[in-house]
Amino acid sequence: MDSGTGRAIPVDSPPPKSEGERNSSEVTEFILMGLSHERGVQLFLFALFLIFYLIVLPSNVLIIITIRSDPHLNSPMYFLLANLAFLDIWYSSITAPKMLIDFLSERKIISFGGCIAQLFFLHFVGASEMFLLTVMAYDRYVAICRPLHYTTMMSRRLCIILVLISWAGGFVHSFIQVVLIVLLPFCGPNELDNYFCDITQVLRITCVNTFAEEMVMIFSSGLISVVCFVALLVSYAFLLTVLKKNTGESASKALSTCYSHIVIVIFMFGPAIYIYARPFDEYAPDKVVSVFHTIIFPLLNPIIYTLRNKEITTAMKKVKTRVLKPLSL
User: How many domains does the chain divide into?
Assistant: First the structure.
């Protein structure tokens, strides 16, 4: 008892917890609300997305094997395409397996560490893919506008360096996101209104005002997406203008390649801009756009490139023949 004030003095009151301690002690897991609470809808979506996932993996693996095994597909464009297929395999595997398991689970739970890991790899691979698409646009520019210098300007060594730079850029981008998230206190709600962890949901359930962090993430994710998207569209518009003036089989082939790249760019950057280039408030189409961005988009790359590229389809038939021939004996 304090003789001056008459108030009781707590004897063993614990010291206040730091933000890191609150993160680890008060929130150890997140509950994912998923796409639907109806059992029938969940089973339908499970079957649908399982089909998507089982198409994405073999298709992209087949693209990589085909490019690696066919000596005619040794140009920088196909080297970059094989790397894009590898990123698609990784990108689709970050959210799809966990989502499929949750469709069959009563409680959809992800640990705090698992949530941070999912967030990190989602932005790491996604940003790397955006930078790689920019590299692929540069490759098309050199091939169309500087054809005589193409082999020297786009050497294998330079291609490897550009791919590594794309990965490094994705890592730095994702590291910034994760550091900002980990430093925030989570001491209250732990429900995420989606089927995976992302910054747009996690920031909504922190215990503090996250306006500054949100602005940094909008600048890091949204502005980068917008700038890259506009730059890619302008570059491809320029290339299409150049190709329209030329005739012949090579120009027609280059046009087909550019159209494929433009479609991929639109489908990749469109949802990313919608999700990250605005305040992180909840909107009705958010889940639909997220599904397209993380599940359906990786399926588009192999479909678009294989259907519009005769060299790849021909090489795939050769691979299929070599694989199936021993089985028929």
Answer: 1
Q: Is the pLDDT confidence value at 90 over 80?
A: yes
Q: If you average pLDDT over every residue of the chain, what do you get?
A: 84
**For the chain, how far is it from start to end, CA to CA, in angstroms?**
94
Give Cα separations from 84 to 3, 37, 223 (angstroms): 74, 35, 22
Domain span at residue 267 reads 29-63+71-313
Strands 29-32 and 191-192, by their bridges, are parallel
Confidence (pTM): 0.85
CATH number of the domain within which 92 lies: 1.20.1070.10
Q: For residue 167, what are the CA distances in angstroms to 85, 199, 216?
A: 14, 20, 21
Element (H, E) at 193: none
Tokens of 225: 């997406």
Render 41-78 in DSSP notation, one character per residue: HHHHHHHHHHHHHHHHHHHHHHHHHHHHH-GGG-SHHH
